[in-house]
């Protein structure tokens, strides 16, 4: 899977690249409008992560160019502006998703994963981790081909864990992914802890390995070693 | 009091004083003149009587005359050289008499001559002067009122036009505001100053707008960089537990900072009226949406939610602000509640009330809506801007928000501001 990261802030660009490469993607980068335009014309990418504010042009024009070329790449906008108008223009222009700075790398990774899965044509949309299999369309999971009943939140938790497997995830990143902005009205993270505990129990009861590891403080890691 | 009423009053009181003085002076002058004239007449009359008396006395008659106006009779007192003319009060008439009194010697016999003259004329004079003064005053009064009315209509017109323009102006459209040239120097000066001021306000507004936009971009990017670096650092396999703890704490603080930044930007944007909309939306629908989104948290805390949607609260509000308003109020009702507590939402066409059971003590209202007034300083998920944002939305959308605490409940009441003329 090849991803193009169009971001003028070098430090952020490198972080994104490093994280995505950890997760097994091949990444290329562009740090201005002209550079980006050149790259999209020369190469094919599966997914393009684009910042709106770029030197020499707007990220929105890159998207227009991609649409003009009838590119099949998934597009995710990253923007510093958390405004509804920008979000709407972004999505109307043909991008698949919109993420506001600052974001968690694990969140961006999950979004890329979802976009790629939606766009894959070979029909293989399942997410597999050892004996655990997820079917995102039906939101169904099986452990050793046996169905496990999960609540909606538990399903989202598990998907997030597997997509970001082996990475340390903060409670905050998990909460904002699964509960959106509403998690701000939590007094504490006990609530998340309860959900993770239930998920862990259901998976172990169904015969899977105990993959959810707590990391000191307020983090979790989904790993098989 | 209107400026015009004030000037009229001053003018009229000054006029009253002047007219009184003028009346007094007039009266005095006329009265002196009249006295002189009647004194001369008295003396002439006396002279005529003395002549008559001389012929009578020469004929050997002892002359005595007593009428209400003239008395002549012999006395023993020695004669005076001069006639004394005085005002004498009488019980019969309101006006004193002018009275001449002299003892004259006619062929060696002293005669007392007293001639009285009515001063009816003088009384008439007082009445006339008063009448004239009153007439002049009434005329002046009517004329002043009439002219002031005309003046206020004509002369003050540019002033009221400018005033109307100022009242109508809002920050969004201040650029279109222009105060026109008039034919009055003072108003031209005023309008020129107002034009300069609106231009300055407009420029400041634009700068402020640009600043908020830039601040968003400029601050969010370094924050993203720092956060992403910490996230990468966290993936390092060789970190000790202590290292991880430090990184996680730094991450939490960064998240807080970022939320704070977003909250302050939102406040600035609301203040700058950057959320304009012409579409109406229903707060009932937004509330239902958030009850759904927060359902899990509500269940987790075993809260009982009672809704009483008597009417539909429809208003012109940007969807983002509607979300912000409802989520902050409802979110707080969940957050500052205790397990097993209650939330009550009552909506009518003109009022919106959220109340909830709370363990927290009542906070003075003026403090509550201030920025950074958080109930719990150690709470990482509270930046103390939520209620400030709610208040700002209310203030900019003609809503009144009220907070009170009673019987273990806290209430937030939102009402439409009565339309002021």
Automatic annotation (TrEMBL), chain A:
InterPro entries: CheY-like_superfamily, OmpR/PhoB-type_DNA-bd, Sig_transdc_resp-reg_receiver, WalR-like, WH-like_DNA-bd_sf
GO MF annotation, one: transcription cis-regulatory region binding
Signal peptide from the UniProt entry: none
4-aspartylphosphate sites (modified residues): 51
One GO BP: regulation of DNA-templated transcription
Pfam families (alphabetical): Response_reg, Trans_reg_C
Cross-referenced SMART domains: REC (SM00448), Trans_reg_C (SM00862)
Residues annotated as domain OmpR/PhoB-type: 124-224
Protein name: DNA-binding response regulator, OmpR family, contains REC and winged-helix (WHTH) domain
Annotated source species: Parafilimonas terrae
Lineage: Bacteria, Pseudomonadati, Bacteroidota, Chitinophagia, Chitinophagales
Automatic annotation (TrEMBL), chain B:
The organism of origin for this protein: Parafilimonas terrae
One Pfam match: HisKA
Keyword presence, Transmembrane: yes
Segments crossing the lipid bilayer: 7-27, 132-151
Keyword rRNA processing recorded: no
Protein name: histidine kinase
Gene3D superfamilies to which the protein is assigned, alphabetical: 1.10.287.130, 6.10.340.10, Histidine kinase-like ATPase, C-terminal domain
Enzyme Commission code: 2.7.13.3
Annotated catalysed reactions: ATP + protein L-histidine = ADP + protein N-phospho-L-histidine
GO terms under cellular component: plasma membrane
EC category name: transferase
Family matches, as SMART domains: HATPase_c (SM00387), HisKA (SM00388)
Annotated keywords: Kinase, Membrane, Phosphoprotein, Transferase, Transmembrane, Transmembrane helix
Alphabetical list of InterPro entries matching this protein: HATPase_C_sf, HATPase_dom, His_kinase_dom, HisK_dim/P_dom, HisK_dim/P_sf, TCS_sensor_his_kinase
PROSITE patterns noted in UniProt: HIS_KIN
Residues covered by the Histidine kinase domain: 214-421
Gene Ontology molecular-function annotations: phosphorelay sensor kinase activity
């Amino acid at each position: 899977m090849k991803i193009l990261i169009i971001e003028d802030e070098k430090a952020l660009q490198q972080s994104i690249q490093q994280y995505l490469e950890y997760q097994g993607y091949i990444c290329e980068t562009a740090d201005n409008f002209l550079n980006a335009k050149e790259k999209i014309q020369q190469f094919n990418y599966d997914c393009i992560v684009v910042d709106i504010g770029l030197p020499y042009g707007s990220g929105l024009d890159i998207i227009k160019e991609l649409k003009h070329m009838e590119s099949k790449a998934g597009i995710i906008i990253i923007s510093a502006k958390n405004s509804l108008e920008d979000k709407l223009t972004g999505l109307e222009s043909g991008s698949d998703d919109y993420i506001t700075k600052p974001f968690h790398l694990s969140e961006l990774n999950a979004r890329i994963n979802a976009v790629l899965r939606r766009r894959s044509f070979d029909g293989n949309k399942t997410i597999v981790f050892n004996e655990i299999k997820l079917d995102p369309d039906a939101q169904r999971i099986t452990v050793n081909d046996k169905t496990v009943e999960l609540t909606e939140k538990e399903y989202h938790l598990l998907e997030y864990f597997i997509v970001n497997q082996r990475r340390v995830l903060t409670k905050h990143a998990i909460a904002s992914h699964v509960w959106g902005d509403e998690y701000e009205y939590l007094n504490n993270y006990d609530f998340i802890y309860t959900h993770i505990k239930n998920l862990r129990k259901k998976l172990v009861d169904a015969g899977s390995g105990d993959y959810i590891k707590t990391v000191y403080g307020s983090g979790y890691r989904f790993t098989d070693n | 009091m209107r400026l015009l009423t004030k000037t009229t009053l001053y003018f009229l009181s000054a006029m009253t004083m002047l007219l009184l003085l003028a009346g007094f002076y007039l009266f005095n002058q006329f009265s002196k003149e009249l006295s002189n004239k009647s004194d001369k007449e008295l003396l002439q009359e006396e002279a005529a009587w003395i002549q008559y008396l001389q012929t009578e006395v020469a004929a050997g008659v002892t002359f005595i005359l007593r009428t209400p106006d003239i008395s002549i009779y012999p006395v023993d007192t020695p004669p005076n050289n001069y006639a004394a003319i005085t005002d004498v009060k009488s019980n019969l008439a309101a006006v004193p008499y002018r009275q001449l009194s002299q003892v004259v010697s006619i062929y060696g016999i002293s005669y007392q001559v007293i001639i009285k003259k009515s001063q009816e004329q003088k009384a008439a004079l007082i009445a006339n002067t008063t009448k004239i003064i009153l007439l002049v005053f009434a005329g002046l009064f009517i004329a002043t009122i009439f002219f002031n009315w005309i003046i206020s209509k004509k002369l003050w017109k540019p002033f009221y036009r400018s005033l109307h323009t100022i009242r109508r102006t809002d920050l969004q459209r201040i650029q279109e505001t222009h105060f026109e040239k008039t034919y009055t120097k003072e108003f031209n000066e005023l309008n020129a100053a107002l034009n300069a001021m609106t231009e300055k306000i407009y420029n400041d507004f634009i700068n402020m707008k640009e600043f908020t936009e830039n601040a968003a971009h400029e601050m969010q990017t370094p924050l993203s960089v720092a956060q992403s670096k910490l996230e990468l650092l966290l993936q390092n396999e060789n970190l000790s537990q202590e290292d991880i703890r430090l990184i996680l704490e730094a991450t939490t603080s960064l998240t807080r900072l970022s939320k704070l930044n977003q909250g302050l930007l939102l406040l600035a944007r609301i203040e700058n009226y950057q959320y304009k909309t012409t579409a109406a939306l229903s707060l009932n629908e937004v509330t239902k949406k958030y009850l759904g989104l927060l359902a899990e948290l509500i269940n987790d805390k075993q809260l009982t939610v009672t809704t009483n949607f008597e009417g539909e609260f429809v208003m012109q509000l940007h969807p983002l602000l509607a979300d912000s308003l409802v989520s902050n109020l409802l979110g707080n009702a969940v957050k500052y509640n205790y397990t097993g507590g209650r939330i009550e939402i009552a909506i009518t066409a003109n009022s919106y009330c959220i109340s909830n059971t709370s363990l927290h003590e009542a906070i003075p209202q003026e403090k509550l809506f201030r920025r950074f007034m958080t109930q719990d300083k150690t709470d990482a998920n509270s930046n103390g801007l939520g209620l400030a944002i709610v208040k700002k939305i209310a203030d900019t959308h003609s809503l009144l928000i009220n907070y009170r605490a009673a019987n273990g409940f806290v209430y937030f009441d939102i009402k439409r501001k009565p339309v002021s003329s």
